[in-house]
Amino acid sequence: MNPIKLTAANNWQELDQLEKNGVLPGELARHLKALVGCHLKHMVHPTVSDEILRLAKRHVKEGILITDEKRCFEQLYDIVLFQGDEQTRPFFHLIAKYPQGRFRYLDEI
Questions:
Q1: Is the Cβ–Cβ distance between 98 and 91 less than 8 Å?
Q2: What is the spatial distance between Cα 79 and Cα 35, in angstroms, rounded to a whole number?
Q3: pLDDT tens per residue, range 41-97
Q4: Is the distance from CB of 58 to CB of 41 less than 8 angstroms?
Q5: CB burial string 71-104: b at 16+ within 10 A, e below
Q6: Contacts of 44 (CB under 8 A, 6+ apart)
Q7: Nearest partner of 53 among 77, 76, 21, 27, judged by Cα
Q8: Gap between the Cα atoms of 52 and 55, Å rounded
């Protein structure tokens, strides 16, 4: 499975096309529109339901590749989950993917 490839300028249309082609379920495509839009515009990310989590695990394991229209900029992102608790909500976040390593929190080091 390959990453989902999107451009920063046309990601909504590209996700619509992936939905129409049967690559992504509609519910997941709509959630990814919100997630990518929020990431690009530095906004609050949408809440993740159990169903969205299940769909993302099935369809977006390899991440999301975002480029500009001229392909001068290209970055692969992993989707990570902030799990939340009774006082906060769960949400996805995109983090840059670096194939030769992994991120760790400072308190894990």
A1: no
A2: 10
A3: 888 889 999 999 999 999 999 999 999 877 778 899 999 999 988 888 999 999 998
A4: no
A5: eeeeebbbbeeeeeeeeeebbbebeebeeeeeee
A6: 38
A7: 27
A8: 5
Map out the domains of the chain as residue ranges. 4-108
Looking up tokens 């608790």 gives 85
CA geometry: angle 92, 62, 85, nearest 5 deg: 20
Distance CA 75, CA 50 (A): 27
Alpha carbon distance 47, 64 (integer Å): 18
As given in the structure block, the two tokens for residue 30 are: 């709509």
State the first-to-last Cα distance of the chain, in angstroms, to the nearest integer. Answer: 32
Amino acid identity for residue 19 in this structure? E
